[in-house]
Amino acid sequence: MKISVIIPTLNGEKQLDQLLCSLEGQSVQPDEIIVVDSASTDGTIAAASAHALVRVISIQRSEFDHGGTRDMALHQCSGDVVLFMTQDALPTDEHYIKNLIAPFSDEQVAAVGGRQIAYPDARPFEKAVRSFNYPASDRVWDKADIARLGVRAYLISDVCAAYRRSAYLAVGGFDHPIMTNEDMLMAQKLLQAGYKLAYSGGASVYHSHHFTLRQEYKRNHLIGWTMKHYEERFGHAEEMGEGVKLAVNVVKSLLKQGQVLECIPFAFNCAARLLGNRAGRRAAGKEMA
Predict the structure, then answer these.
(1) For residues 134 and 89, is the Cβ–Cβ distance under 8 A?
(2) Which helix (H) or strand (E) holds 205?
């Protein structure tokens, strides 16, 4: 089984070398790493080029598209299994790739998502959010589980995910152009085509954000727009129910840790998420009318 890793980058010099060193030190090493750089103005390209396994593809920043750029890179690589990562993710140990590709022993598994653990310097509520969304337990699901799982049936994240190349090509690849959630739409395609999806709790990366409220609002505006625009494909799955479960779980976790005051910034964060999502959905609805 040949393994390719694809990493889109933009001014990622500070993080990229550590990520590439980690990938080179894996117990199961990739055969190639493709860095797709969107006209970085720092030392990203130099940092990537210093690693023997890396091939850099440079594009203009205006050309970047979450689905189209990744699809282009996949067609440039040769892996039977293609891993996608982001420049701000870092494997937690040397068995990340080994554990991420393990579910492919089942020939019906077309894609595998990995676990995201917040960086040590992340806010307590961000750590609790990651813990809720990305548990340690493994699971495998298929089309028959969509009704039970709702929107969580589509939660594969290209922060750390692997795709069986043959299945990816069979369903036509990532949607593009697209602003976000190309991974969830791919999950939808694969499930509808009869494939299984998997989540490996043992394949973990450090990944978290320090978003301002404005950034959180804008991010969720894009997500809301996408979910509304593609609601037919997602079976009209609503994020609201999962959002409530997340909020309740995080608050309980913070209170258990004695982080009472942390509930206040978390409440503002939730408000930014909700308002952004609703505004994005309304904007998409008007465009579709």
Answers:
(1) no
(2) strand 196-206
